[in-house]
Design a protein that fits this description.
The protein is an alpha/beta fold. 25% of the residues lie in helices and 26% in strands.
């Protein structure tokens, strides 16, 4: 399929040297159902193998960050075993429960030592509340801009990489959606995960309608976006990525809808992408110099 892109002119923007691996959650961990065995679509460990494959350094150090999870040790053990299976031997663990722990810990050193970072699932708000404004996040983002490192996240860990970041809201068309600032590895892009499985199109459309500068990207389970140069996305995995583009919206009732009137909008643009498709994220809101 030809590359999909939105019809907007590019603005100047810093070009990151790092790579993002943004996973929709529930990535295949080597298991195969009877149905999968008869299908060429579900490939065991495809998404996690891609994360490992894009790490440029041999004998890489991978830092697994489980702070979003309420079961950090269990989550780390699972991912450590998987990364070991994929030939990564030096897998390290970072888990914090309180912001004071982050401030007292030498987290900036951890950010400087690893070649790849992997945020697990759980609660994305924990990640922003714990690490926002810390030396760890500053060092990690500097390295992402300047060095060829890999930053990945799955489920909540993927949602936290974006800004804006959804923190609550169900899938009903008139429900209240709450958003905050994410970790800002991608800006003016809202990422949602488990997108098709949990029927999250309606809530993402609402986010986009509130400010059409923002692009909405919904990622299916066992599916990931590999983002290079900050804007060049390629798709891996067995599911679908849905891009919701509000740049061409000609009208909506987002400022006036209520329980008696469902949300409406016109000329919302949607792309459906799958394995091997590419997409270039438009830069319509250049940062201040």
């Amino acid at each position: 399929m030809a590359e999909q892109t939105s019809e907007k002119s590019s603005g100047e923007c810093p070009v990151p040297s790092g790579i993002l691996v943004i996973i929709g959650g529930k990535e295949n961990k080597g298991e195969q159902s009877e149905k999968d065995k008869n299908s060429d679509n579900v490939l065991p460990l495809e998404v996690l193998k891609t994360f490992v494959d894009v790490i440029p350094k041999k004998n890489a150090v991978v830092q697994v960050i489980t702070s979003a999870s309420g079961e950090g040790n269990e989550s780390f053990k699972e991912y450590k075993a998987l990364f070991n299976k994929l030939k990564i031997q030096d897998v390290r663990h970072m888990h914090h429960q309180e912001r004071n722990e982050v401030i007292q810990d030498d987290v900036a050193k951890r950010a400087a030592e690893a070649d790849a970072f992997f945020f697990t699932g759980g609660d994305q708000l924990k990640l922003t509340a714990l690490y926002g404004g810390t030396p760890f996040l500053t060092e990690l983002k500097k390295r992402y801009i300047r060095e060829n490192i890999v930053v990945g996240g799955t489920s909540a860990g993927a949602m936290a990489l974006s800004t804006p970041m959804i923190i609550s809201g169900n899938n009903e068309i008139n429900s209240e959606i709450k958003v905050t600032t994410g970790l800002e590895f991608v800006k003016d892009v809202c990422i949602d995960t488990h997108f098709i499985k949990r029927g999250r199109f309606a809530r993402m459309a609402q986010v986009v309608a509130t400010n059409p500068t923002c692009l909405g990207i919904g990622i299916d389970e066992d599916t990931a976006i590999i983002l290079r140069n900050g804007v060049e996305a390629s798709i891996v995995g067995s599911g679908t990525v849905i891009v919701i583009d509000g740049f061409h919206i000609t009208g909506s009732n987002i400022t006036s809808y209520d329980e008696h009137h469902a949300i409406a909008m016109r000329n919302l643009k949607v792309h459906l992408l799958s394995r091997d498709d590419t997409y270039k994220i438009p830069q319509v809101n250049p940062p201040h110099k």
